[in-house]
Amino acid sequence: MTDTGRPAGQPPAGGRILVLIDGSRTSYGALEAAADIAGKRDADILGVFVEELNLLRSAGYGFSREVGSASGISRPLDPEILQRRMRRLADHARAALAGAVKQHGGRAALSVARGRVIDEVLALAGPDDLLVLGRAGWSSPAGARLGSTARGLIQQSPGQVLLWCEQKLPSPNRVVVFLNDHDEANHRATLAAAEISRHYHQPVTIILGNDGEPAADQLDAIRQDLDVLGAGTRLRIISDTDPVSIARMLREERASQLVISRRCALFDEPGAEHLLAALNLPVTVTP
Amino acid sequence: MTLPTPLTPDQVYHRCPLDQLDFSTTDSLEDLELPCGQERVLRALEFGASMQADGFNLFVLGPAGAGKHELVERFLARHADQQPVPSDWCHVHNFEFPDRPRAIRLAAGEGRQLKKDMNDLSGELRTAIPAAFESEEYQARLQELQEEMTKRQHQGLYDIQEEANANNIAMITTPAGFTFAPMRNGEVIDPEEYKKFSDEEKELIESKVEELQKKLQQNIQQIPRLRKEVRERVHALNEEMVQLTLGGPIGELREKWQHLPEVVEHLDAIREDVVEHAEAFEDTGNGPPTGLLGRYRINLLVDNSETTGAPVIYEDLPNHQHLTGQIEHRARQGTLYTDFTLIKGGAVHRANGGYLIIDARRILSQPMAWESLKRILFSSEIRIESLERLYGLASTISLQPEPIPVTVKVVLLGDRILYYLLSHYDPDFLDLFKVEADFEDDLNRDDDSYGLYARMIATMARHLKCRPLGRDAVARLIEQASRLAADQRKLTAHDRVLRDLISEADHWANKAGMATIGVDQVQQAIDEREFRASRIRERSREQIARGIVMIATEGETVGQVNGLSVLKLGASMFGQPTRITATARPGKAQVVDIEREAKLGGPIHSKAVMILSRFLASHYAGEGELSLSASLAFEQSYGGVEGDSASVAETCVLLSAISRLPLRQSLAVTGSMNQHGEVQAVGGVNEKIEGFFDVCREAGKVHGQGVILPASNVEHLMLNSDVRKAIADGDFSIYPVSHINQAIELLTGMEAGEPDENGEFPEASFNRAVANRLFQFAEVSKKQDDSEGSIDSNGGAGRD
Asked: CB A54 to CB B284 under 8 A?
């Protein structure tokens, strides 16, 4: 582990921001977002760089070759070249982390580990930590909307996960939280949305996905949450919860971020893939 | 020979007969649309303006102030009024070659309409296109397209991954791509463990890995094609949206402008361009860039919507830019840029289909302007090019607008000398300016012309917003016009002088509180003009009066006569006498022209002296020998002498010097003479006579003085009232002579004498005295020659 700005071994005061850095462009975008949040929350950042065991092992085969994701050209995969590449990426990640912290303030550390990514991250993450990662890492240029690591961590992370992605919509100005029939999960999502709304000074829209009329007590619970969310909050109820309709509504709302609980039915496989494919905005997944 | 009779006052001044002017003031006279007496110019203008063939442009030549510009403009305005209004022209953006804006011809008035239509369209595009791109329909379809692409791309990878997993092979993402390795329970097998596998197993795995790699390679290499396909489909979608959005407005415009294929073509090009730049319109935050929309507007170069008839344009500063137009530049962040909206038309654009009036001297004094005009006329098209580019001085990005075909009739106004110089030195000139419209300097003065001339004066007075002129004032102006033409049978056609006189007379009438301009005001205007220009003349007269410049106006003197000369200073002329003296003695037959020897005499003067010396030899020496060494000089003349108008005076003074007979100093002489002694007309007679009269008056009393002038000059006399009065009183005489003998008789009071059949002049005649003296000279010379010859022969014998 490498520390930046904090003496080694000292535990973080509150929830940390864990950011997964694999050297891809998306992961550096996620790092910027994480540093911004850390600055706002006054939290520490822990960068996580994992040298994936499977990758290191696959380089050890004499016959293994690497097929370029852009060119499709196949060339031998040399373990030494790979090692060097990993080291360079780690160095770069360290420098980027230091740079981001310098800009936004706070303290940061980089954890470099070797093993399976999900295992390594889960070993570091606690329930109060916010895990920030790109929606897809190295596989994004090849068209993947949701990488396998992201998919695994959404499901298994003990705390909130922010799936970062570059936004294309001009002038977004609302935080949208999607709720369904799980009250606790709804409450957690609402609180997360309230925090984001506070940080970015943006009003919140609640989208309530429901097949029929929402139950009276459910509406009461939401109304209570509306007080937390403050003035300017908007409530919309939709019955059609297919990814395209939701994406359209998010565009209409000029959403800057979506907050959703992992217990939401939308997130059941393979729905998550479709939803994320339809959306181009950061998504916070609450437990 | 009979002595000539002195002229009567009526002979020296041609009065305007008042009965020819049947009006009381010029108010009752109608305007004269075109000046009288300029038929040649008018016919040339009529022909040149109507002639359609190439190169029949006009050059109107005449002296400055002749009223060329006003006449041409008035004539052309009337002529052009009957002709059709020419087309409008505009430049539009060329979407294919942006540096070559296209030119579109439109019927007069349509240009303004098209400009409005295109501005409206541009405004509509600004809002309608972004709205279409923002629409839910477009966004949804775009999303679907992109999704499909992603799906297809991802599906391929997913399939390979599935196939690999099914064969216990892991597909692993690396920072630069993908790799395959054998796996067990979702983990890549350690390479060390793999070594323990049987060869068959290894072979199976490796061949599978190879197969998967190939598939992956193929799959990845298809991605650019997929992307391109998506791009094309997005473009097609954009096109569809734009077509739908623009369908209405562009369709309407296409229908409206269907009679002009160029406009329809341009509208289609705009539609294509909007589709191509659909992405620029998608920026809903800032809207489409102004530069993009600016390209859909038009630059209306020539707007004839309010023109009636063909245009008549006068370009008062005919430089290259003003004639051919120019391409302006704007500075943006330190760089100069231009586009088709910055093309500015020139005078030729505005005059296209009509007439362009240019001052010849001005266009010739502007760099490149004359060459540019000729190029336009030769090629019948205008090509806008900046001067700095022509000279290669600027290298900023510029445009080459499509040339505009031009049919323009150019009317150049200039002095005659310019016309003749251009004809001589510019080989293109006569090809391009085939119609010569030569202004008359003078008009005939006859009974028919009085009425017309009076109307012309009336028109001038009205144009100048002056008071009307009374009948006698018009008569005085007509007489002055004859004086200005220096001819009793002519009237000046010089517009400017007449206008100035009318304006000045109006001024004096105003001072005098008169409602109409009377003869006194006209006379005052003439006198004042003369007085203002009289400083030099008065200085010169003063010198004569004080005896500094010696002029005798009475008595008789041998070898001395009063010649008359004219000085022109600016716009005014005045005459003054000059003393001419001669000496004579025996010698080698020659007359020394002192002026020429001193290089103060011009070639015409020298010629006149040669003529008179030949006259002398042939008239008096006959077949005998002429022995004469004579000299002629203009006394107290320091500024040079030119012209032959003194040759009669020079002959008389030389004969007086030879014969030693005195000449009357009360007479001044002017006139040129040929080898036979005939007297020929000269110029400036009025000024000369008045000059001598004034000198006589200032020297004391005018009594018995006079002027000898050529008889052919009598009809040029328009003398002032003082001289006329003196003539009427018998104090001053003007003698018209047609032969040198008449001048001799007047100057000497002796008979000149005609030779008989033997060539002998009568006894006691002046010519006999001359002949006798010349004979004596010859004798003296002969004696001298003989004595020199004997000395020579003696000397020669002595030497022998």
From this structure: no
- DSSP letter (8 states) at residue A262: T
Q: Which alpha helices (H) appear in B380-468, and where do they start and end?
A: 387-390, 416-425, 429-432, 447-463
Q: Across the interface, do A278 and B143 touch by the CB < 8 Å criterion? A: yes
Same domain, B209 and B257: yes
Residue B220 to residue A142, Cβ atoms within 8 A: yes
Interchain CB contact of B190 with A (< 8 Å): yes
The DSSP symbol for A159 reads: S
- CA-based nearest residue in chain B for residue A116: B187
Measured from the Cβ of residue A249, the count of other Cβ atoms closer than 10 Å reads 17
Full domain range(s) for residue B434:
38-86+307-439
Do the Cβ atoms of A58 and B136 come within 8 Å? no
Catalytic residue ranges of B: 645, 688
Which own/partner pairs from B77-84 qualify as long-range (CB within 8 Å, at least 24 positions apart)?
B77/B312, B78/B33, B79/B45, B79/B46, B79/B49, B79/B50, B80/B49, B80/B309, B80/B310, B80/B311, B80/B312, B80/B354, B80/B355, B81/B308, B81/B309, B82/B309, B83/B309, B83/B310, B83/B354, B84/B309, B84/B310, B84/B353
- pLDDT at position B796 is 40
CATH of domain A174-286: 3.40.50.620
- Number of structural domains, chain B? 4
- Which of B502, B532, B562 corresponds to the end of one domain? B532
User: In chain B, positions 228-287, which contact chain A (CB-CB < 8 Å)?
Assistant: 283-285
Whether residues B217 and A55 touch (CB distance < 8 A) is answered with: no
Using the Cβ of B178 and the Cβ atoms of chain A, whether some distance falls under 8 Å is answered with yes
Which residues between 34 and 53 in chain A have a beta carbon less than 8 angstroms from any beta carbon of chain B? 52-53
Average pLDDT over residues B759-771: 91
The CATH architecture to which A2-164 belongs is 3-Layer(aba) Sandwich (3.40)
Residue A142 confidence (pLDDT) above 50: no
Give the 3-state secondary structure of B443-501.
EECCHHHHHHHHHHHHHHHHHCCCCCEEHHHHHHHHHHHHHHHCCCCEEECCHHHHHHH
Q: pTM of the prediction?
A: 0.68
Which residues from chain B sit within 8 angstroms of residue A52, using beta carbons? 172
* B 99-158 → A contacts, CB under 8 A: 136, 139-140, 143, 147, 150-151, 153-154, 157
Average of pLDDT values for A224-248? 73
Residues B265 and B342 in one domain: no
pLDDT digits (tens, 9 = 90+) for B147-167: 787 777 778 888 888 888 888
Give chain A's radius of gyration (CA, Å). 20
Residues of chain A found within 8 Å of residue B187, distances taken between Cβ atoms = 53-54
Under 8 Å CB-to-CB from B135, ≥6 apart: which residues? none
Q: Is B266 exposed, middle or buried (0-12, 13-18, 19+ CB in 10 A)?
A: buried
More confident: B519 or B141: B519
Mutate to test the interface with A, among B173, B185, B204, B218 (most CBs of A within 10 A): B173
Where do the DSSP E strands lie in B141-227? 169-173, 177-184, 187-188
State ipTM.
0.79
The minimal CB distance from A74 to the residues B170, B217, B285 is found for B217
Residue B735 pLDDT > 70: yes
Domain co-membership, B602 together with B722: yes
What backbone torsions phi and psi does residue B644 show, to the nearest 5 degrees? -110, 15
Domain range annotation of chain A = 2-164, 174-286
Q: Is residue B782 part of a domain?
A: no
For residue B137, the tally of other CB atoms under 10 A from its CB is 10
Question: Nearest C-alpha of chain A: how many angstroms from B291?
Answer: 22
Residues B414 and B312 in one domain: yes
Which tens digit of pLDDT belongs to each residue from B16-27? 999 989 899 999
3-state class of B121 per DSSP?
Answer: helix
